[in-house]
Design a protein that fits this description.
Blueprint: H1 6-29, H2 34-46, H3 50-63, H4 68-81
Length: 86
């Protein structure tokens, strides 16, 4: 990482941390919103926290067991987090 991008990286991390905090707070009030669960997982993914994103999607899958959208996102994340065997 160059020094030129360092301030942008700090602001980006602070902003995404705030967004994660706000989405989690909204989910505590109403955990039945599928869009908020996916948004939270994508925020973790953007921060390169794939384990946390996968954990979030698995938790959401308990609430929405029939959601194909969750299954697709979870499969995509699990495939990208595993190293390819070549």
């Amino acid at each position: 990482m160059s020094w030129y991008n360092f301030p942008v990286k700090i602001l980006y991390n602070a902003g995404s941390s705030l967004a994660i905090f706000l989405v989690k707070r909204k989910l505590k009030k109403d955990h039945t919103d599928l869009g908020k669960w996916i948004l939270l997982a994508k925020l973790y993914e953007v921060r390169q926290e794939k384990k946390e994103a996968i954990k979030t999607l698995k938790l959401a899958q308990r609430i929405f067991p029939k959601s194909e959208l969750l299954k697709k996102h979870l499969a995509r994340l699990q495939n990208t987090s595993q190293p390819s065997a070549r």
